[in-house]
Amino acid sequence: MSKIISRRSFLKRTALLSAVMSGGFNRIWALPKSQFIREVDDLTDQPVVVWARHPDIYSITGGFSSSIIEMVMDEAIINLTGIEDTGTAWLSLFPNITASCVIAIKINCVMGDNPMSVHQEIVNIVIDKLTNMPLSGGPLPPENIIVWDKYDENLTGAGYSLNYGGAGVQCYGAQHEGVGYDESNPLFLQGHERFITNIIAERCDYLINIPVIKDHNIAGTTGALKNHYGTVNIIDIDGDTLHTNQCDPYIAQINADDRILSKQVLILYDAIFGQYEGGPYGPDQEWLTFPESRPSGLILSRDPVAADTFEYNIIMAERELRGFSIVNTPHIQTAAALGLGSMNYQLIEISEFPVRELTIHHEGEDIVLNWNALPGANQYKIYRDSDPYFNPSGAPYAVTQNTEWRDEGVLNSSVKWFYRIIAEVSAQ
Questions:
Q1: Would you tell me which of 28, 68, 71, 151 could form a disulfide with 173, CB atoms 3.0–4.6 Å apart?
Q2: Are residues 133 and 170 in contact, defined by beta-carbon separation less than 8 angstroms?
Q3: What does the pLDDT profile of the chain (428 residues) look like in tens digits?
Q4: What is the DSSP letter of 55?
């Protein structure tokens, strides 16, 4: 289904690094090999899926680490867009955006106060990134951001505070009084008439889709594509149901609507927790696939089919390890057949984090490197090479627990050295 793209190939395509800045080498962390994770040889023009993990993104004793979530999200968005500056990277997702535009964030809170709802810690960081994008006409006002799910009670049950028309970020359900649905332009799904929420049809210019990782007892999995079941007015009514035939082709047909296609710019999975059996309802589960017993990360892509295919692979890898059956998800294949995305993708995996704000100066014949501490770092591995695009491998040149390191006597050499510093992280 996919093939991991090497960091060297990625850097050749994007040319991110300069001589004085450390780059972004990422150690490859691989899912268990399985018959349903197929590889392709040609990565040209395939959508990118970024899988960024950190073992301390959540801990039982300390809860969520917002600083680590932000670091993981920053590294993921840089890798997704190929743009080194995070503000500019976020801005690149929204073509022709101005400060008067509105961005809607569709989340999944059907589980209420449960780890399998989208977490406010993630949404708050997304909001911070959006309001700090370098817009030419000034920052995006928080009032121009709508956080929403289908029902108000989904949001309040997950701890979100409703705000309809007040100051600050807007937060309400698609069925909140006064929102309504676009009844002038109905969807006909195999004879079933449905309507798209006005949040998408009328109120927003761009859409971010934040799903969670979990299986589904009917559809097989529920991810970015199925998250849009919260976009239409009614799913099941008096035998008129969109859950027959494993929700296929209904999920794909909803996502094929131009009101969604033209506005959805980012898929950002809350992949800190996950569910692989018994979904869509129930608590999060312990995983064998991951050393922290949970996925502990974020999945980013611009392609909902690619993102959902990768989610499927994660869930099926865990099911296979535990002896559960491998289930089918026809709605993903149908979405691909409708041209909504690709089931083949380039996978960039991130489990180590580069120091990106590195200062270099000399003292006598020594080169001195300084950097800010990265959250969750146990130590820093220092690599050097004469090639500015070198791919760090093998043993590092040096290791330190400090945020300063001195390369002694190096200016006596005629070689021009380039440095990269990688924060090594492990569960505390």
A1: 151
A2: no
A3: 444 433 333 332 222 222 232 233 222 223 332 223 223 334 457 999 999 999 999 998 889 999 999 999 999 999 999 999 999 999 999 999 999 999 999 999 999 999 999 999 999 999 999 999 999 989 999 999 999 999 999 999 999 999 999 999 999 999 999 999 999 999 999 888 999 999 999 999 999 999 999 999 999 999 999 999 999 998 787 777 899 999 999 999 999 999 999 999 999 999 999 999 999 998 899 999 998 999 999 999 999 999 999 999 999 999 999 999 999 999 999 999 999 999 999 999 998 899 988 999 999 999 999 999 999 898 999 999 999 988 888 899 999 999 999 999 999 888 999 999 999 887 54
A4: T
Q: If residue 304 lies in a helix (H) or strand (E), which one and from where to where?
A: helix 304-322
Domain boundaries, the chain: 28-350, 354-425
Q: Which residue has the tokens 């964030």?
A: 105
- CATH 2.60.40.10 for domain 354-425: yes
Rounded to two decimals, the pTM is 0.87
